[in-house]
Amino acid sequence: MTPTSPSAAAADREAVLDALRTYLEAIERKDPDAAIRMFAEEAVTFDFAPPLENHFNSLSDPSALEEWFETWVGPISTEIGSAKVMVMGSLAVVHGLQRLHGRKKNDGDLSMWYRATFILSRREDGWRITHMHNSVPMAMDGSGKALTELKPA
After folding, report:
1. What are phi and psi of 122, to 5 degrees?
2. CATH number assigned to the domain comprising residue 47
């Protein structure tokens, strides 16, 4: 593998972050089609909602996202905290803590931090998400309770 110049590495890193920003902005605008476009055809996600894994074929139907968007009043804000980005050729890994906040229709204000990992691949039409994994820590007291109230130190 040919070493990447520092300027090319910085450009790749910024392009990867731009792709993630595009995805997160689509979530904020509640635009399921734009969000789905940021995924590669073979994408697999491990997200909060069941099932344990989603293959892109099930994600390509925007109805699940539309239903989730309907549970919110106004925009759904999400931001990646101190993201770590590693790019190696046409593959990128981004991980860090992410914050989701907004107003739920039946539950009021929501603000939660969670762990997020994205794997992206470079395509002819730009960087696309091939894997996304979101999770929250679980109480280890046998309750199985998700610890959504935790905040970064």
Report:
1. -80, 130
2. 3.10.450.50
In a domain, 18, yes or no: yes
| Domain of residue 83, residue span | 6-135
The burial class, CB within 10 Å (0-12 / 13-18 / 19+), for 99 is: middle
User: DSSP readout, 23-77?
Assistant: HHHHHHHT-HHHHHHTEEEEEEEE-SSSSS-EEHHHHTSTHHHHHHHTTEEEEEE
| Burial class, 27, CB count within 10 angstroms (exposed 0-12 / middle 13-18 / buried 19+) | buried
Q: How many domains does the chain have?
A: 1
**Cα separation, 121 vs 50, whole angstroms:** 25
- Residue 23 belongs to a domain: yes
User: Which is it for strands 126-135 and 108-123: parallel, antiparallel or unpaired?
Assistant: antiparallel
Q: What is the pLDDT of residues 9-57, one digit of tens each?
A: 899 999 999 999 999 999 999 999 999 999 999 999 999 888 898 887 6
Amino acid occupying residue 151 = K
